[in-house]
Design a protein that fits this description.
Layout (H helix, E strand, L loop, with lengths): L1 H14 L6 H58 L4 H4 L2
Amino acid sequence: MKLQNTQQLDRQRRAGVGFHSLHEALDAIATRDFAVMADLGGVALLMIAYRRRRTTENGEKGETTKLFTERFTTASERLGSEHAAVHGR
């Protein structure tokens, strides 16, 4: 059994599969960890940008509604005014 495992490892090393040293294995793990962390950071930035845009758009809609309400209120007050200049002739 040990001989088969050793032969299999030798074949993998010759084929370029596997790691030749602990340093190579740790380097590969660190590289993968860095890639995963970079991906997670990118996803987090996309989520933040999406939420910021959504909040901004909702704020603009609220501002538009507020302006419409103010204009409508002002117009209705003017129509109800008793001053002749407001009614127009």
